[in-house]
Amino acid sequence: MSPRGTARLAAPVLIAAMLVAGCGTPRSGVLGPAPTAAPPSSATAPTGRPEPTPAPSAEPRPSRTGAPTLPPAPSTTATRRPDTVTIELWYVRSGQLVPTRRTRPATVATSRLALTELAAGPTPAEAATGLATLLPTGVEVTRITDGVATLGPVAPADDADRRRLGEAQVVWTLTQFPTVRQVRFGGGAPVGRADYADLLPPIVVTGPGVGDRVTAPLTVTGTADVFEATVSVRVLDAAGREMATGFGTASCGSGCRGGYRVVVGWRTAREQRGTIEVYEVSAQDGSRINTVTVPVLLAPSGG
Fold this sequence. Notes:
signal; five-stranded mixed β-sheet
């Protein structure tokens, strides 16, 4: 046979040998990492049945840096209820309403908690500043309907002014809750905060509270109806020395009540008792008038 004919016969034999070698099992080599993603849903196993999706592994997978990558934590929509609740209580001092705060274990019966705390009266530290309560014990809310809280029988006070102050305590305390806009006493008409607005002092301090441990800078908050809406603040140390001063403007003033926020800072090397004074500067002689004093604990600077 000629060399050309021999070449024609050798080519098919060589191709067949290459195909057979490609179908065999390799003796060595790197196959690469195992697949980590599930196969597409349309993929089938050699048997023709859908291939099952492998269950996710709880074992950590090594990252490129060598640290294990943990599987994501299961998501949850549950919200944990707070352990405590802070309520505002309105007491009486010199015939006017004054707020303070209490933090107590959380409860769904917040109106009952508020009235119980209101009737219990101020703490010794608050009483030392002149705070008192005119609400007798045992007063409870019987129902809340359409934003109106109805109270059970209230023992009548022997004085009309004291009775009105006691009612104002209840109204201003209960209407802090979003479900209460007005309060009904017995069979009377519902009343709200505006019905007792004349019992507020020119300056009301809502924060800080009596006995609070405060740090600098401190934000003093409240409401005021003062000349040119200007509210002044000063910080006194344990010896009564002035440590810092500041002032701010209420959102309304000189005949209307507005909210204010005054930030004041100081420096002290040790923790000590102190006083936050909030006052109005007299338009006549520049003296401090309508002063509200709040005893506090001054934390060390940076502490």
